Amino acid sequence: MEIRTRFAPSPTGYMHIGNLRTALYEYLIAKSQGGKFILRIEDTDQGRKVDGAVDVIYNTLKMTGLQHDEGPDVGGDYGPYVQSERMGMYMDYALQLVEKGKAYYCFCTKERLDSLKASNEHGDAFARYDRHCLSLSQEEIEANLAAGKPFVIRQLMPNEGTTTFEDVVYGSITVDNSELDDQILIKSDGFPTYNFANVVDDHTMKITHVVRGSEYLSSTPKYNLLYDAFGWEAPTYIHLPPVMRDAQHKLSKRHGDKSFEDLINEGYLVDAIMNYIALLGWSPSDNQEIFTMDELIKKFNISGISKSPSIFDIKKLTWMNGEYIKAMDFDKFYELAESRLKDAVKTPGVDLKFIAQLLKTRLETLNDIAEMVDFVDKLPEYSTDLYVHKKMKTTPEIALKALKAVVPVLEAHEDWTNDSLYECLMGLAKSMEFKNGQILWPVRTALSGKPSSPGGATELAVILGKEETIRRIEEGIKLLEAAE
Ligand code: GLU
Fold this sequence. Notes:
Strand order of the largest sheet: 3-4-7
Helix content: 40-55%
Oligomer: single chain
Strand content: 5-15%
Low-confidence stretches: none
Number of helices: 18
Bound molecules: glutamic acid
């Protein structure tokens, strides 16, 4: 049997990390077994409609490479793939259940239902419906329908016994049927309830594996009873534990946690994000941590999914992102870095590619770029304390001597390349009987005005060019002299 999974997002306008992980696992389950990955848009809750929200879903799937085999934009044999375009079919399915005695018309007014709730001891909104309309005769039903009385269709739940289903991650789950309300399948406006549409869609789209958040675990017995009522085979259920912000709280966009788009805007790479979220709730049998999508497809195994909630650790993602940047092909990196470099460096003539080469091994996210190169356009104000470096054995006094000696040497130097400048400064250190660091650290400091920089003294000199290099060293000399 062909494996068919589906991603069934409700368009909210952003991609929650937990939802993206669901999509990834659905994709991996399908692709690891040569199956199909389907996109269905669950937009029946029109009240929550957000403009452009469906595009966010398409864009995310495109960016992440979770390419669906069937869906609203690519078509397929089981469409339409947008729930709101399927509205015509649900009533027919509900009527099939009425015919089989597994569902019934309910004409109760809102007032009656409210009074039921009120008469319930706790005023519990989830109190079971009292099945008032179950006893209506066929004539009464027909008369009500002919009179145009508003109605809903309810599922007739079993009175006794238990319902059990197997979840691949959570194991066997059993509920007492007496706890299940005769849930509404078709609302009084003729539209299906979310639960009903979801089951009919999964069945008619031939979905074999339903992967979704564990918040749906408690509804699953009801879903299963619907499959039973129709005489359909229920899919394999794979509920995923929540992604947490910390031990107590779920990750939540409303509480400020980051969505996929936020992470992209903050300079994280798509591949690093996908790699990281693959590991949020799944682990391979070995300890491999860095995976390409192809490796994930090969290695992913449902049995590696854990039921314990995983914490979204931004530090770990940041580390992983840095590893991806280091490992990236330079041209691809430059493509991503270029616009940020152009925004951050306005001085004409600066070799941005040279800077990018230096940055590539030092960045954790692309957004670090601006801060790391801010010294190029303007030397920041700095204190002479920066010239103190224990390991380099420098003090402001040594730095002053070094910088004073460097100026004439650099003025005379023609070949403004890194290697040649390095050799030149090394020669100077030797002739002065200074340690290399006693020349390099003061120059690096004078050129950047910062405690750390994306390159050493000579690399910074290449970035800034001869004139600006000498100007900054002279400025350093003035600063050190004033502090004496
Ligand atoms: N539309 C649901 C959601 O976005 C998905 C439910 C399901 O996968 O069954 O949470």
